[in-house]
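Folding Task

Wanted — backbone structure
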Amino acid sequence: MNDFYKKILDNNKKWVETSLASDPNYFQDLAKGQTPPLLWIGCSDSRVPANEIVGAKPGEVFVHRNIANMVVHSDMNMLSVLDYAVNVLKVKHVLVCGHYGCGGIKAAMGNDSIGIIDNWIRHIKDVYRLHSNYLDSIEDETERFNTFVEISVKEQVFNLAKTSIVQSAWKNGQELTLHGWAYGLNSGFVTDLEVNISSNNDLDEVYQLKF
């Protein structure tokens, strides 16, 4: 058996043993159901683990991940997760978390063809085009890259706010707040991008403020 594969199987056994040692009912309690307060929409990057970043336990964060943490209105996977989180689990917070050094964002800044992912990158390129005058005015490449990461997160939060799922929740008086973060791979800290939206009034105010 491949050494890596054997290692992850062994790690699972050790994790179970450690968890049961601290709480004999650990898995029995988890199996009863979930009531997470947060839906995390993050990047598929293996260096951005949702639970660990916020110090959350299993059952506390409902997670959806894709390349560059995009909120695309035709993505039925994302919409299904969002619908379940908002209408069944009744989460109170939805967080879009991007990260500095994101490969998807970097790819969208260039013209190289990568493969089938080019079709997904197209959505990110649309964000760049929307803010091209501002981004192109930033001479330092690293600063432009980091700024694009932040702008893209903000746009995904706005996309999220415009979904019929979120709009219906707000119309029905459901407590639901949207947030945008950027995670630093080289520091471990997150930056709150201050796009905290809990109503259409907030959406209008924050959009005017940020752009």
User: Anything to note?
Assistant: The longest strand covers residues 93-99. The chain has ten helices and five strands. The chain has a mean pLDDT of 95.
